[in-house]
């Protein structure tokens, strides 16, 4: 992938872009192999490669410039404002979408926030697109409600110009800190969810719910987990599945088969509502999603599932949850990780489990980051 911002050293966010893509993939596989060598995986599969550009369906842009001449991008290490509206990581529909966002900023007179002076209102533009429908969700991160009336006044104009805009909201982040978003979300459109579909499984994204930035790779990740679970079912039937850190239900809804039960746990109530809606549409009756802390749920549990699925944030499972997994002793464990370092730490804290399968999914091309899917079995 060629990027003129990277070539000019204005944006180095894709810090591996100077390496040919096959070399990037080989380096990631080598790092993963080294990290997991002590656990002697029975099978280490070839990595799943990414498209090299146009794969990122979620953008996080800093609002820069002025209300009259807005820019969307980053402030680089040299302190320069860099407009990334033409970033090649995004699909073609993002460039005109960013231009409409800029026109809306001008029309609503949204002054970009100045960190040093602590003045201005608009901090970030967060934009997501459904690959399935082509529809968009736009979130405006504001310092306060001072411009809320102006946003509401001019929103009908934006919706008329941009028929693909499904959901629009304002997020309030009042702190002068490097935080992407705050707790309060004000949805301004009739539609509150962005519909996505992966492998014939409907998923519904709320403004604050977590979802992978690359839907093609996410679909491959979920399908691989489903295939592994189906193979286990052939070896010996299991009935109870837990999906911890379940988000909007992607893993659990891909894995469950007839005759099985699924319990999904996620701390965000909006994500749980989305997962429950998907389960209902798929006709699953023996499914329960609950808005709880995953570690607290496991700590209070007395009986283990047959298959435990975990997809924790970058910090990993942690010592306490690993101890509870050891205590509960589910027969099978599928662990999806976005941080191989903390994955290795957690595997060391799960000595009662042997590592059967490992596969790398290159969710984040041109960087050192990647997703890993693992299958573990309790030792006899």
UniProtKB/TrEMBL annotation:
InterPro entries: 23SrRNA_MeTrfase_RlmC, MeTrfase_TrmA_AS, SAM-dependent_MTases_sf, U5_MeTrfase_fam. SUPFAM superfamilies: S-adenosyl-L-methionine-dependent methyltransferases (SSF53335). It comes from the Bacteria. The active site is at residue 338. Keywords: 4Fe-4S, Iron, Iron-sulfur, Metal-binding, Methyltransferase, rRNA processing, S-adenosyl-L-methionine, Transferase. S-adenosyl-L-methionine binds at residues 212, 245, 266, 311. GO terms for biological process: methylation. The keyword Signal does not apply. Gene3D superfamilies: 2.40.50.1070, Vaccinia Virus protein VP39. The keyword Transferase applies. One of its GO terms (molecular function) is methyltransferase activity. It holds the Pfam family tRNA_U5-meth_tr. Its EC number is 2.1.1.189. It is an enzyme of class 2 (transferase). Belongs to the class I-like SAM-binding methyltransferase superfamily. RNA M5U methyltransferase family. PANTHER family: RNA M5U METHYLTRANSFERASE, TRNA (URACIL(54)-C(5))-METHYLTRANSFERASE. This is 23S rRNA (uracil(747)-C(5))-methyltransferase RlmC. It comes from Rheinheimera muenzenbergensis.
């Amino acid at each position: 992938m060629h990027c003129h911002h990277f070539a000019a050293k204005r944006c180095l966010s894709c810090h591996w872009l100077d390496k040919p893509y096959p070399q990037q993939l080989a380096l990631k596989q080598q790092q993963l192999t080294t990290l997991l060598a002590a656990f002697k995986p029975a099978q280490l599969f070839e990595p799943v490669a990414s498209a090299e550009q146009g794969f990122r369906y979620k953008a996080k842009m800093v609002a820069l410039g002025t209300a009259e001449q807005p820019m969307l991008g980053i402030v680089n290490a040299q302190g320069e404002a860099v407009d990334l509206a033409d970033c090649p990581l995004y699909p073609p529909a993002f460039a005109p979408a960013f231009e409409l966002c800029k026109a809306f900023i001008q029309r609503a007179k949204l002054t970009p926030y100045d960190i040093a002076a602590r003045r201005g209102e608009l901090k970030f533009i967060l934009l997501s697109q459904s690959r399935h429908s082509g529809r968009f969700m736009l979130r405006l991160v504001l310092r306060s409600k001072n411009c809320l009336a102006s946003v509401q006044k001019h929103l009908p104009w934006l919706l008329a110009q941009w028929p693909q805009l499904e959901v629009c909201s304002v997020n309030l982040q009042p702190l002068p800190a490097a935080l992407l978003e705050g707790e309060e979300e004000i949805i301004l459109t009739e539609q509150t969810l962005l519909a996505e579909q992966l492998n014939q499984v409907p998923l519904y994204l709320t403004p604050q719910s977590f979802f992978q930035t690359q839907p093609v790779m996410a679909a491959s990740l979920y399908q691989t987990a489903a295939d592994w679970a189906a193979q286990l079912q052939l070896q010996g039937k299991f009935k109870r599945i837990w999906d911890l850190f379940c988000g909007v239900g992607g893993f659990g809804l891909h894995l469950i088969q007839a005759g099985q039960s699924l319990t999904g746990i996620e701390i965000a109530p909006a994500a749980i509502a989305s997962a429950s809606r998907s389960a209902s549409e798929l006709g699953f009756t023996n499914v329960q999603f609950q808005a709880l802390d995953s570690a607290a749920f496991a700590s209070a549990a007395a009986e283990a599932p047959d298959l435990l699925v975990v997809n924790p944030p970058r910090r990993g499972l942690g010592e306490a949850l690993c101890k509870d997994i050891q205590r509960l002793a589910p027969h099978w464990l599928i662990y999806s990780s976005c941080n191989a370092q903390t994955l290795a730490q957690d595997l060391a804290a799960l000595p009662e489990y042997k590592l059967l399968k490992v596969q790398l999914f290159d969710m984040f091309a041109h960087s050192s980051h990647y997703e890993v899917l693992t299958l573990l079995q309790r030792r006899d």
